[in-house]
Amino acid sequence: MIETNNETSTDPENEAMTTELKVYPIYLTQLANVLAVVVGGGRVAERKINGVLAAGGRVRLISPQATPQLQIWAAAGQIEWMARNYQAGDLAGAFLVFAATNQRQTNAQITIDAAELGVLCNVVDAPAEGNFHVPAVHRQAGFTIAVGSGGQSPKRSKQMRDQIAAIVTQVQAHLTAQE
Asked: According to the model, what pLDDT value does residue 13 have?
Protein backbone atom coordinates (compact mmCIF):
# COMPACT_ATOMS: atom_id res chain seq x y z
CA MET A 1 0.00 0.00 0.00
CA ILE A 2 1.45 3.36 -1.02
CA GLU A 3 0.41 6.78 0.22
CA THR A 4 0.53 9.50 -2.43
CA ASN A 5 -0.61 13.05 -1.72
CA ASN A 6 -2.64 11.88 1.31
CA GLU A 7 -4.30 9.13 -0.71
CA THR A 8 -3.65 5.43 -0.27
CA SER A 9 -3.03 3.32 -3.35
CA THR A 10 -2.49 -0.39 -3.87
CA ASP A 11 -1.96 0.05 -7.61
CA PRO A 12 1.47 -1.46 -8.52
CA GLU A 13 1.87 1.15 -11.26
CA ASN A 14 2.03 3.87 -8.58
CA GLU A 15 4.31 2.09 -6.10
CA ALA A 16 7.40 4.12 -7.08
CA MET A 17 5.59 7.35 -6.26
CA THR A 18 5.91 8.26 -2.57
CA THR A 19 5.59 12.04 -2.94
CA GLU A 20 5.21 14.40 -5.85
CA LEU A 21 8.83 13.54 -6.66
CA LYS A 22 8.98 9.97 -7.89
CA VAL A 23 11.51 7.97 -5.90
CA TYR A 24 12.54 4.35 -5.61
CA PRO A 25 14.06 3.81 -2.15
CA ILE A 26 16.82 1.21 -1.90
CA TYR A 27 19.51 0.08 0.52
CA LEU A 28 22.92 -0.29 -1.12
CA THR A 29 25.02 -3.22 0.05
CA GLN A 30 28.53 -4.54 -0.62
CA LEU A 31 29.91 -1.02 -1.00
CA ALA A 32 33.40 -2.33 -0.26
CA ASN A 33 33.34 -3.60 -3.84
CA VAL A 34 32.65 -0.22 -5.42
CA LEU A 35 34.09 3.29 -5.38
CA ALA A 36 32.35 6.38 -4.05
CA VAL A 37 33.93 9.65 -5.21
CA VAL A 38 33.28 12.71 -3.06
CA VAL A 39 34.27 16.08 -4.49
CA GLY A 40 34.54 18.75 -1.81
CA GLY A 41 36.24 18.72 1.57
CA GLY A 42 33.86 20.57 3.89
CA ARG A 43 31.40 19.52 6.59
CA VAL A 44 28.77 18.30 4.12
CA ALA A 45 31.33 16.13 2.33
CA GLU A 46 32.42 14.80 5.71
CA ARG A 47 28.85 13.74 6.52
CA LYS A 48 28.50 12.01 3.14
CA ILE A 49 31.80 10.19 3.61
CA ASN A 50 30.88 9.18 7.15
CA GLY A 51 27.72 7.54 5.78
CA VAL A 52 29.60 5.65 3.08
CA LEU A 53 32.22 4.48 5.59
CA ALA A 54 29.49 3.35 8.00
CA ALA A 55 28.15 1.16 5.17
CA GLY A 56 31.61 -0.32 4.57
CA GLY A 57 32.29 1.67 1.40
CA ARG A 58 35.49 2.77 -0.30
CA VAL A 59 35.90 6.53 -0.69
CA ARG A 60 38.05 8.76 -2.85
CA LEU A 61 37.98 12.40 -1.74
CA ILE A 62 38.90 15.08 -4.26
CA SER A 63 39.46 18.50 -2.71
CA PRO A 64 42.41 20.84 -2.19
CA GLN A 65 41.35 21.24 1.48
CA ALA A 66 39.64 18.93 3.93
CA THR A 67 38.13 19.12 7.40
CA PRO A 68 40.28 17.85 10.26
CA GLN A 69 38.21 14.63 10.42
CA LEU A 70 38.66 13.98 6.69
CA GLN A 71 42.41 14.49 7.12
CA ILE A 72 42.43 11.96 9.99
CA TRP A 73 40.57 9.40 7.86
CA ALA A 74 43.00 9.99 4.99
CA ALA A 75 46.06 9.66 7.24
CA ALA A 76 44.65 6.42 8.67
CA GLY A 77 44.08 5.03 5.17
CA GLN A 78 40.30 4.90 5.59
CA ILE A 79 39.81 7.14 2.55
CA GLU A 80 41.95 8.09 -0.42
CA TRP A 81 42.51 11.87 -0.62
CA MET A 82 43.51 13.60 -3.83
CA ALA A 83 44.41 17.07 -2.53
CA ARG A 84 43.52 19.09 -5.62
CA ASN A 85 40.57 20.52 -7.52
CA TYR A 86 38.20 18.36 -9.55
CA GLN A 87 39.34 17.43 -13.06
CA ALA A 88 37.74 15.69 -16.02
CA GLY A 89 38.26 11.95 -15.62
CA ASP A 90 38.07 11.96 -11.80
CA LEU A 91 34.84 9.95 -11.84
CA ALA A 92 36.35 7.01 -13.75
CA GLY A 93 35.46 3.77 -11.98
CA ALA A 94 32.99 5.41 -9.60
CA PHE A 95 29.67 3.83 -8.66
CA LEU A 96 28.48 6.76 -6.53
CA VAL A 97 29.43 10.41 -6.79
CA PHE A 98 28.80 13.24 -4.36
CA ALA A 99 29.15 16.78 -5.74
CA ALA A 100 29.76 18.57 -2.45
CA THR A 101 31.84 21.62 -3.26
CA ASN A 102 30.93 25.22 -2.48
CA GLN A 103 31.23 26.06 -6.19
CA ARG A 104 27.99 25.83 -8.20
CA GLN A 105 29.78 25.58 -11.56
CA THR A 106 31.98 22.71 -10.36
CA ASN A 107 29.00 20.80 -8.95
CA ALA A 108 27.12 21.30 -12.22
CA GLN A 109 30.09 19.92 -14.20
CA ILE A 110 30.37 16.92 -11.89
CA THR A 111 26.67 16.25 -12.49
CA ILE A 112 27.13 16.36 -16.27
CA ASP A 113 30.20 14.13 -16.11
CA ALA A 114 28.43 11.59 -13.87
CA ALA A 115 25.40 11.49 -16.19
CA GLU A 116 27.65 10.85 -19.20
CA LEU A 117 29.21 7.91 -17.35
CA GLY A 118 25.89 6.57 -16.07
CA VAL A 119 27.04 7.04 -12.47
CA LEU A 120 24.71 7.78 -9.58
CA CYS A 121 25.22 11.39 -8.46
CA ASN A 122 24.12 13.33 -5.38
CA VAL A 123 24.34 17.11 -5.75
CA VAL A 124 24.34 18.80 -2.36
CA ASP A 125 23.54 22.36 -3.48
CA ALA A 126 20.95 21.43 -6.14
CA PRO A 127 19.34 18.09 -5.17
CA ALA A 128 17.01 18.08 -8.20
CA GLU A 129 20.04 17.90 -10.52
CA GLY A 130 21.23 14.61 -9.08
CA ASN A 131 19.66 11.19 -9.43
CA PHE A 132 19.79 10.10 -5.80
CA HIS A 133 19.31 11.65 -2.38
CA VAL A 134 20.70 10.49 0.93
CA PRO A 135 18.05 10.05 3.62
CA ALA A 136 18.45 10.83 7.30
CA VAL A 137 19.73 7.53 8.72
CA HIS A 138 19.70 5.92 12.17
CA ARG A 139 21.56 2.66 12.76
CA GLN A 140 20.86 0.66 15.90
CA ALA A 141 21.28 -2.98 16.87
CA GLY A 142 20.81 -4.54 13.46
CA PHE A 143 18.25 -2.04 12.20
CA THR A 144 18.68 0.79 9.75
CA ILE A 145 16.01 3.46 9.64
CA ALA A 146 16.02 5.86 6.72
CA VAL A 147 13.73 8.87 6.29
CA GLY A 148 13.83 10.93 3.13
CA SER A 149 12.07 13.87 1.56
CA GLY A 150 13.55 13.60 -1.91
CA GLY A 151 16.02 16.33 -0.99
CA GLN A 152 13.22 18.84 -0.40
CA SER A 153 13.41 19.05 3.40
CA PRO A 154 16.52 17.46 4.93
CA LYS A 155 15.88 19.19 8.27
CA ARG A 156 12.39 17.73 8.54
CA SER A 157 13.70 14.30 7.54
CA LYS A 158 16.23 14.47 10.39
CA GLN A 159 13.53 15.49 12.86
CA MET A 160 11.32 12.59 11.78
CA ARG A 161 14.27 10.19 11.91
CA ASP A 162 15.00 11.25 15.48
CA GLN A 163 11.38 10.80 16.53
CA ILE A 164 11.18 7.36 14.92
CA ALA A 165 14.53 6.36 16.44
CA ALA A 166 13.28 7.32 19.91
CA ILE A 167 10.21 5.11 19.44
CA VAL A 168 12.29 2.21 18.12
CA THR A 169 14.65 2.52 21.09
CA GLN A 170 11.71 2.33 23.51
CA VAL A 171 10.15 -0.64 21.74
CA GLN A 172 13.49 -2.43 21.56
CA ALA A 173 14.06 -1.90 25.30
CA HIS A 174 10.58 -3.24 26.02
CA LEU A 175 11.14 -6.32 23.85
CA THR A 176 14.54 -6.96 25.41
CA ALA A 177 13.00 -6.76 28.89
CA GLN A 178 10.45 -9.40 27.88
CA GLU A 179 13.10 -11.90 26.71
From this structure: 45
Q: pLDDT tier at 27 (50, 70, 90 boundaries)?
A: confident
Biggest alpha carbon–alpha carbon distance for the chain: 57
Report the b/e string of 95-123 with b at 16+ CB within 10 A. bbbbbbbeeeebbebbbebbeeeebbbbb
Exposure string (b/e) for 50-72, b if CB count within 10 Å is 16 or more? ebbbebebbbbbbbeebbeebbe
Alpha helices in the chain (DSSP H): 43-54, 68-75, 104-117, 154-178
Confidence of residue 75 (pLDDT cuts 50, 70, 90): very high
